[in-house]
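Entry 14. Structure prediction run on the chain below.
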Amino acid sequence: VQLVESGGGLVQAGESLTLACSASGSLVRATILGWYRQAPGKQRELVASVTNTDITNYADFVKGRFLVSRLFAKNMLYLRMNSLKPEDTGTYYCNAQFMVEPIGDYWGQGTQVTVSS
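Output returned:
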């Protein structure tokens, strides 16, 4: 499964962005779909995820501001980001974990989000 992120860019604090992740194959059988981010000099961290049983999980620093969603019909995963802060700046990665075929942990190449103050 190949994942390609899009939708990043430069925005001002308080503005919104929607990231999209397009998959080369079906995401229906993925156990967990998620968004991670990595700021310069920092480790990659979980932003939001959704399981195949529709359980969502959000990092404390985005709760109430970000929303993860998926559209299986188009093999898409989205991250709606509202009330962006400068500390949200980083490279955002799409992730898909499969415990059935095609078994594996798949990553996109990332999309840059920069929030200016």
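The chain has a mean pLDDT of 97.
Filed with the rest of this week's runs.
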